[in-house]
Specification:
Radius of gyration: 16 Å
Strand order of the largest sheet: 2-1-3-4-8-9
Number of domains: 1
Order of helices and strands: EHEHEHEEEHHEHEHEHH
């Protein structure tokens, strides 16, 4: 048995793992999927959110587990699990980046990969007047994130998504070889992703090498488009 901690990405919440959690549990694993601050049903005010607050939330979950965990981050959750690994590496057995931002030390998600055109996220972003949050235009959410998902999945996501605190997007991640760098890393690329382009994914796992690269032929939402295949890959870890 393995303990998995599943970390969602921007605009999402723990709800995005609803079809993954029971499948992993049926395979004999323990699973925890927390909401990050100001995401899902978490009540944290946006003003209190920071990249370190995300890391601290993850570390509180990781440190509560009886054995070292496999820590999985999706999309912006990759930045969150990297910062968490730097903060509390002791109870993390492996880091899994699921079409996620695996960034070098000192780099922020904002602007990374902008030289490779084609992502459907930037043209659908709506920045709040106070610049504190950014939303995704409802008409662009499905095409950008889950073009291969059912209408029901898209409707569910649109009903539950929340504006994303800008701070997590613009804050550089910080990590060292002695802490983050000592934890084995795996990257799961999604080859039909229209949000985080496959070319950008490849750049990241090349710049910050990983032990293994696994592939899913899905959009940015493999937890909806191919939950069985995703759980099969996680189970091999």
């Amino acid at each position: 048995m393995t303990t998995f901690v599943l970390v969602h990405g921007a605009w999402h919440g723990a709800w995005c793992w609803d079809e993954v959690v029971p499948r992993l549990e049926e395979a004999g694993h323990a699973v925890v999927a927390p909401d990050m601050p100001a995401h899902g049903s978490d009540p944290t005010p946006v003003a209190d959110v920071s990249l370190q607050a995300y890391a601290d939330r993850i570390c509180s979950v990781v440190d509560a587990q009886p054995e070292p965990v496999v820590l999985v981050g999706h999309s912006l959750g990759g930045v969150m699990i990297t910062q968490a690994a730097e903060t509390c590496p002791g109870n993390i057995a492996k880091l899994v980046y699921l079409t996620a931002f695996l960034l070098p030390d000192g780099v922020a998600r904002m602007g990374y990969g902008a030289d490779i055109p084609g992502s459907l996220v930037p043209p659908n972003m709506i920045v709040a007047d106070d610049k504190a949050t950014v939303a995704i235009h409802p008409d662009g959410f499905g095409p950008a994130f889950c073009h291969d998902c059912s209408d029901g999945h898209v409707a569910k996501a649109l009903s539950l998504t929340r504006p994303e605190p800008m701070v997590g997007i613009v804050t550089p991640v910080r990590h060292t070889p002695e802490r983050f760098g000592r934890i084995p890393r795996v990257y799961i690329e999604c080859t039909e992703d229209r949000a985080l382009l496959p070319e950008v994914q490849k750049r990241m796992y090349t710049e910050t090498p990983v032990q293994r690269v696994l592939s899913l032929a899905t959009s940015h939402a493999p937890f909806f488009a191919a939950p069985d295949e995703l759980v099969g890959l996680l189970d091999t870890l």
